């Protein structure tokens, strides 16, 4: 169980399932869509997956099984980075009509030099840039326009965690009505200030 009371910053591991879907388009042969996002069990001691710039890999270990229905499915393990400084953005997400988990895809694979670049891996032309729960943070990606932002519904244990995190770390400033200083108004009138104030004051 994650303790939130004294935790201003935490990581939450997730696994994202992608599909590389062929499309009939003269400019593009395919597009990447998000099929699912599930919480990741990190209690095995292997630690948390990276926060950003994550490789997408084939879901199947045996990529030669081209007759499989899952040959176009891929997976990436990443961590959602929750920080108290982003609490206002998380609250905005929760209060929206469409609470979401934001998944940012960026062009270019992340094949390491010492990896054998098989035909299947060569066809992975994107990587996972980041996963976020803050629409404010994601706005930077959308304004840039170079990355693709996908959304999946926010529900289940991730929604529960975010609700608790926001309730602890988000403290909106209470609006305080500004009071008029009658003493300053009186002094302004007696000094021959704005005649409209004088008229209203004495009437």
Number of helices: 6
Shape: globular
SSE sequence, one letter per element: EEEEEHEHEHEHHH
Distance between the termini: 67 Å
Name the strands of the widest sheet in spatial order: 2-1-5-4
Q: Can I get a quick summary?
A:
With 203 residues, this protein is of the alpha+beta class. Helix content is 27%, strand content 30%. The chain folds into 2 domains: 9-169, no CATH class; 176-203, no CATH class.
What's the topology here?
Layout: E1 9-22, E2 30-39, E3 52-54, E4 57-58, E5 73-83, H1 87-95, E6 100-107, H2 119-122, E7 126-132, H3 135-144, E8 148-153, H4 156-169, H5 182-190, H6 195-202
Antiparallel strand pairs: 1-2, 1-5, 3-7, 4-5, 6-7, 6-8
Report on this model:
The chain has helices at residues 87-95, 119-122, 135-144, 156-169, 182-190, 195-202, and strands at residues 9-22, 30-39, 52-54, 57-58, 73-83, 100-107, 126-132, 148-153. It is an alpha+beta fold and 203 residues long. The protein has two domains: 9-169, no CATH class; 176-203, no CATH class. Strands 2-1-5-4 form a four-stranded antiparallel sheet, with no helix packed on it. Helix 1 crosses helix 4. The chain is globular, with a radius of gyration of 26 Å. The N and C termini lie far apart (67 Å). The mean pLDDT is 81.
